[in-house]
């Protein structure tokens, strides 16, 4: 496939680019296929929509004929990136990291295909001796300069361990190893990775005279100030075993009106002419744009069959189809007999973050049982075998009695 020389302009127009270490140099390099890498530490067994911007950018590079490479930090997960964090990240053991690597690898396949290379930095970091690391990497960096980076300086206001301080050097070493082993010349990351990327470029130049490039994406937040990837019920996971395709579809269907055009550009592959048309809709018509966003994002994440099931579930929530495809919560018969409160059930089913949130929802008329508004969230669930519990107009969970032995 030919390489469009205006790919960087396409990425800029769609909102993917925050900073680039050398725009002219990267544009020239991209006249022929290059290898670009995006890295993830294995901190959970699924990626969430906060990671989706990077996966979508890699899809655009892949479509233009470039070669995406995905790095999993099997080694660096044991340390934790301190960038702009207030506290040290919990340390995971080997089996937990292995399970997480298996889980997040599924998202790579769905977005970039089964043939995309996935590399674990444990391959070179696990066998690297401390003195060797100091000699190969540490001697090239000034502590004084590292302390000028915002990502490091912000942690000094709290507490920064020497272990975490070394993380940026390990990531720099990752870049040079990927360049040596896989011919990788471009690193992609969030805006908070700028210092880590620069260090990798500097290390490659000082060690081997390599011409390496870095590109960062804007750190995304929703227009109401929430961190991208979070919802009232928790993280918006990409794996179906963590969040149903219907729940994923609901997230996009319910986004703030102000985010529709931006999210259409970032999280779908619709032409920008169509993105601008949909983003310009007003009032009730903007709901049509949200449905397009939800449909396109869900199709990419889970496939057409899962999207079809999510659409059936959405229709079922409004009474014009079966409920079979909805997210389902199995309720133990003993809890029903004990008189489980709707507020507790709403929390367990993922419709509210806390019982107090469920009570506020009910006070505002947003908590409904089988389509009827519930004023008292502390009322017990009535006898039965199946119920529809709803939070607002767009979030619904089918409650069923668990089969014996579940």
Write up this protein:
The chain has 406 residues and is α/β, with parallel strands linked by helices. It has three domains: 7-217, HUPs (Rossmann fold); 244-317, Orthogonal Bundle (Tyrosyl-Transfer RNA Synthetase), CATH 1.10.240.10; 328-401, RNA-binding S4 domain (Structural Genomics Hypothetical 15.5 Kd Protein In mrcA-pckA Intergenic Region, Chain A, Roll). The protein has 19 helices and 13 strands. Strands 1-6-5-2-3-4 form a six-stranded mixed sheet, sandwiched between helices. A hairpin with a 2-residue loop joins strand 7 (230-231) and strand 8 (234-235). Helix 12 (245-253) packs antiparallel against helix 15. The chain is globular. The termini are far apart. The model has no long low-confidence stretch (mean pLDDT 85).
End-to-end Cα distance, whole Å, is 52 Å
The global form is: globular
Counted up, domains total 3
**CA-atom Rg in angstroms:** 24 Å
**Helix residue percentage:** 40-55%
CATH architecture of the largest domain: 3-Layer(aba) Sandwich
User: Major sheet: order of its strands?
Assistant: 1-6-5-2-3-4
CATH class of the largest domain: Alpha Beta
Class from helix and strand fractions: alpha/beta
- Report the major sheet: 6 strands, mixed
Number of helical elements: 19
| Average residue-wise pLDDT | 85
The CATH H-level homologous superfamily of the largest domain: HUPs
CATH topology group of the largest domain: Rossmann fold
β-strand amount: 5-15%
Q: Detail the poorly predicted runs.
A: none
Total beta strand runs: 13
Write the layout of secondary structure elements.
Layout: H1 7-14, E1 19-20, H2 23-29, E2 35-41, H3 52-63, E3 67-73, H4 94-112, E4 118-120, H5 122-125, H6 130-136, H7 143-146, H8 150-156, H9 162-165, H10 167-182, E5 184-190, H11 194-208, E6 213-217, E7 230-231, E8 234-235, H12 245-253, H13 260-267, H14 272-279, H15 286-302, H16 304-317, E9 328-331, H17 333-338, H18 342-348, H19 355-363, E10 367-369, E11 372-373, E12 386-391, E13 395-401
Helix pairs in contact: 10-11, 12-15, 12-16, 13-14, 13-15, 15-16, 18-19
